[in-house]
Amino acid sequence: MYQTKVAIVSQPIDGVLPPYQNSIGIWVYEMSRKLAEDFDITVYMKGEGRGLQDHQEEGVCFRQVTRGPDHLIQKFKARLPHKQNLRKPAYAASSHYAAYAFLIAQDLRRRGCELVHLLNFSQFVPIIRALNPKIKIVLNMRCEWLSQLDTEMIARRIDKTDLIVGCSSHVTNEVRKRFPHLDQKTHTVFNAIDTSRFTAAVSHDIKTTVGSKQLLFVGRVSPEKGVHVLVEAMPKVVAAVPDIHLDIVGGHMLLPYEFLVGISNDETVSSLVEFYRDGAKDFYISYLKERIRQLGLQEHVTLTGLVPYADVLDYYRAASLLVNPSFSESFGRSPVEAMASEVPVVGTKVGGMLDTVVDGEIGRLVTPGDADALADAMLDLLGNEELCRKMGRAGRERAALLFSWESVARQWRDVYQRELKIA
Are residues 217 and 186 located together in one domain of the fold? Predict the structure, then answer.
């Protein structure tokens, strides 16, 4: 039986095959295997050596693409004196990983692929379209770059797409506001998690936590995630619940200024420039450690650093609440993982969290940057165990209905078939 040839192009910076995966790599790996039930799927991903190397797994061809020429180009460009235009940053330039895109475009034409699914890199669109004039192009955005970068530059690229899909209503609506003529070809398909893996547990075994009430943050420890606001909220929580403990689980990775803070249209996000002093990558984590010391929170807050993804589940199962105090969230993976684990969420009224966390039913949402409101929301839930159990059950139901791999794969099949007429 003939199957439509569909290609998923991972970002050239993503780890796709286990165990070396980032969040987008996990999505590519899992979703490609689900979609392989209905389509002939090829995944293009970063590789070493020369040419294209294949790895077959569960009906998917994972094709590794050399990035050699691109690395040489990036090194050469890095040595050239230049003043960067934040609306036209180097990572969005047409030349950024152009060799990677060109090799893929050639192979798409050779194999006769009918649909290509790109992630974030809009600069790949013209290259692929030039060599594959009849192919259907889906640009799947996991960030707000289409609405933040130079309008003319982005317009030239996305006019060549067949479909633009945001990972949340926020991402999609921002694209529609900036490019209203593309309204009919913009859609939303949420991100997914493994709801069979993230489940509630009766017993817990977390050696790093000490209190009977456990708060949890999971994510990149970077200013836009609002971890500093969470630290400022903790003294009020500790005063009311002395045995409380917070685990901050995530790598200490400052998101480059030009990726978000420097290009954001949101003033509260732009104000985070104060944490980018002299380009010091360790300034933010040093700041957090000092504030924890100044506020006397050493016994109540643990900065765990990066934890293997396979071990994060244990932290969710030990948590009383998941707290996500972000200033910006295209989707927000950790709230959905917490929901699947029957853990209530205290989050902020930003971006994708407005899609995932139903305020009052799944948890509480507060204004970003408001430490008092964040503390009050945590205390409100910590003082009501029955409400927390009810929210946990509701979160689990919502996660299974909307954010499981099976549910999201069905949505992608529908989009391919309904909007692009792919059989």
Answer: no
CA-based angle 22:245:378, to the nearest 5? 85
**What angle (nearest 5°) sits at the alpha carbon of residue 131, between those of residues 125 and 134?**
80
236 and 372 both lie in a single domain: yes
Domain for residue 33, yes or no?
A: yes
Nearest-angstrom CA–CA distance, 127 and 135: 12
Contact 375, 387 (CB under 8 A): no
Looking at residue 166, its amino acid is G
- Give the pLDDT of the chain (423 residues) as one tens digit per residue: 678 999 999 999 898 998 878 889 999 999 999 999 999 999 999 986 665 678 888 899 999 998 666 665 555 555 555 557 888 998 999 989 999 999 999 999 999 999 999 999 999 999 999 999 999 999 999 999 999 999 999 999 999 999 999 999 999 999 999 999 999 999 999 999 999 999 987 544 443 344 478 999 999 999 999 999 999 999 999 999 999 999 999 998 889 899 999 999 999 999 999 998 766 678 999 999 999 999 999 999 999 998 887 889 999 999 999 999 999 999 999 999 999 999 999 999 999 999 999 999 999 999 999 999 999 999 999 999 999 999 999 999 999 999 999 999 999 999 999 888 876
Overall domain count for the chain: 2
What is the domain-level CATH number for residue 74? 3.40.50.2000
Same domain, 397 and 409: no
Domain region containing 148 = 5-192+404-419
| Same domain as 179, residue 217 | no
Q: Number of helices and strands (H, E) in the chain?
A: 16, 14
**320: burial class by Cβ within 10 Å (0-12, 13-18, 19+)?**
buried
CA-closest candidate to residue 117, choices 333, 405, 423, 420: 420
Task: Give how far Cα 295 sits from Cα of 98, 217, 287, 368, Å.
Answer: 49, 19, 12, 21
Q: What share of the chain is helix, strand, coil (3-state, %, to 5)?
A: 45, 20, 40
* CA dihedral sign of residues 24, 30, 33, 35: negative
Nearest Cα neighbor of 192 from 404, 19, 340, 421 is 404
Q: What is the DSSP letter of 193?
A: B
